[in-house]
Amino acid sequence: MEALNADYLRQLDSDGWYEFLRDQYFRWKYTASNRYTTTTGSLHRYLEENALEELHNVKLRLISFDPSDIAYGLKTAQGGRGAPGRANFYFFFPPPPPPGGAPGW
């Protein structure tokens, strides 16, 4: 995951976004098998309910907002059906560095 490319995420369609979350991101994030199983079970409901477009729309809103509008970003990240829909907002789209920078930015 160290080589995650934001442009790659932007080009994913609804099927690709679902597969990325299931096969790469959640596999990386949830190393405990019970957490992976629970999270991907929630994610699978999007597939069962033919709602992958809803999941994809969360991604589209996250990648299209102005990162300096933190309130909108948080509101968008809280939308959807919970953690799978949010897909760990700050991992994918970290906030901009504070004015003047900070260690680690």
SSE order and pairing:
Blueprint: H1 6-11, H2 14-29, H3 33-48, H4 52-64, H5 70-77, H6 83-86, H7 89-92
Give an overview in words.
The protein is mainly alpha-helical and 105 residues long. It is 64% helix and 0% strand. It has seven helices and no strands. It has helices at residues 6-11, 14-29, 33-48, 52-64, 70-77, 83-86, 89-92. The chain is globular and about 35 Å long.
Q: In a nutshell, what does this entry contain?
A:
The protein has 105 residues and is mainly alpha-helical. The chain has helices at residues 6-11, 14-29, 33-48, 52-64, 70-77, 83-86, 89-92. Helices cover 64% and strands 0% of the residues.
Order of helices and strands: HHHHHHH
Report the span from N to C terminus: 18 Å
Tertiary shape: globular
Kindly estimate the percentage of residues that lie in beta strands according to DSSP: under 5%
Radius of gyration, taken over Cα atoms and rounded to an integer in Å: 14 Å
Count of helical stretches: 7
Helix content: 55-70%
Instruction: Let me know the number of strands.
Output: 0
| Average pLDDT for all residues | 76
What is the makeup of the main sheet? none
Uncertain spans: 83-87
The class by helix and strand makeup works out as: mainly alpha
